[in-house]
Amino acid sequence: MTAVAGINGGTAATTSVTKNDEEAGDRFLKLLVAQMQNQDPMNPLDNAQVTSQMAQINTVTGIEKLNTTVAGLNGQLVQLQALQGATLVGRPVTVAGDRLAVVNGNGVGGFELNSAADSAKVEILNGAGLVTDTLELGALSSGRHGFEWPAGKVQDGDGYRFRVTANSGTRSVLGGTLMRDQVDAVSSAGNTLNLQLRHMGSVPYDTVKAFN
Fold first, then answer.
1. Nearest alpha-carbon partner for 82 in 185, 177, 152
2. Is 104 helix (H, G, I), strand (E, B) or coil?
3. Helix, strand, or coil here: 187?
4. 9 pLDDT exceeds 50?
């Protein structure tokens, strides 16, 4: 079930901040008038000093308004992402993981390399964790790579996984493995948008590497 929050305005919060701003301004003006009325005629307030005090109160007021605006925009951004995320239901995505997805008779997966590899290979593991096949990929450049394995009779629900080895000399340059999953639902909690994936469960929206 897809949970999508509505976009609501922040009227109460805005009214509260506006009232606080007005009260702060009133207090400042009263203090300034009292200071001017009781100033020493032989040593009156300097215009620069008055201007500086007015600038300070404006700065404080402006920061309060800015903080409220940013908080409101952040909340609306999450809600907007949830609305957009609803269109992802049923679509495949790429996330960190090592589960082998079987699509149209081929096992698919991917990985990232921190730097170029002299040699790389992918081992296909069955549900019991035993190696059933090996793909020798040779030298590869840094970045993201994908692979396909002829699955034969292997089905997507058979629980196959894969293991990647990528070295430059004797040093591993593997940045991580990537798997394909499917979005079943979208939900938001506070300022976090979550995707409910078929195999990985709930993951934050920003952990998705790609939308396929």
1. 185
2. coil
3. strand
4. no
